[in-house]
Amino acid sequence: DAGVTQSPTHLIKTRGQHVTLRCSPISGHKSVSWYQQVLGQGPQFIFQYYEKEERGRGNFPDRFSARQFPNYSSELNVNALLLGDSALYLCASSLRQAMIGNTIYFGEGSWLTVV
Amino acid sequence: GESVGLHLPTLSVQEGDNSIINCAYSNSASDYFIWYKQESGKGPQFIIDIRSNMDKRQGQRVTVLLNKTVKHLSLQIAATQPGDSAVYFCAELLGDYGQNFVFGPGTRLSVLP
Known about the structure:
The complex is a heterodimer.
Chain A: E1 5-7, E2 10-13, E3 19-24, E4 31-37, E5 44-50, E6 53-57, E7 64-68, E8 74-78, E9 87-94, E10 105-106, E11 110-114
Parallel strand pairs in A: 2-11
Antiparallel strand pairs in A: 1-3, 3-8, 4-5, 4-9, 5-6, 7-8, 9-10, 9-11
Chain B: E1 10-14, E2 19-24, E3 32-38, E4 45-51, E5 56-58, E6 62-67, E7 72-77, E8 86-94, E9 100-103, E10 107-112
C-alpha cells in the first residue's frame, strides 16, 4: 500500500510568489495535517483537515491556506512568499480527527526554498 | 536529500550500548506524547507513544519514561544499532480536540562502530 505521498519533492520560488503543495493521504485516512519544519527545528503544526473541514490551525499568518478534497487529498497554499518560508513541509495522515491512540503517518515532505 | 537538524544537540553512543534521549515538554495539561525518529531526507516515523496516566511504556528495544512532576520524557533504546542513527523528536499533543502535536527541538543520535 502506498504511504503518504507529497509533491513536489523539491522546489525553488522567488520572494513574493505563490506556491501550492499537494498531499495524498493513505487510502482510507480522512485526516490530513500539515507541518512546517525549518532547518534545525522540530515540525510546527499549520493545519488539520478532517472530512474536508478545517479542524485546527497553528500560529501561521493568513498567507497560509489549505483545503481538502472529496477524495481526502489536500493542498497547502502559501502566498507572498518570504525567505523565512523556506522549509520542509510535511503532510501527515491518520484515520480519525482525534490523535490520541491514532497512528499518524508522515510523508517525505516537500522542500521549499525561497530566494 | 537535505538533512534537518544540522545544529541539534548530538548524542554519540557505541554500537551495542544503550541510548537515553531526554526531552522536556511545555504543558502540564498535555495528555499524550509520542517519540518520532527522522532519518535524513525522510519524514518523521512513529516509534512509541505514552498517555499521561502511565509513567512507563515498553516497545521493541525502546522504552519511554514519563515524569509528569518535572514535565520530562525520555526514550531509552537498548542495544543501539547503526540503523538507529537519526534525529529523535518528542511531541506533546495539544489543541482543543487534541489535533495537533508540538514537537521538541530534537536530538541527533550518532551510533559509532
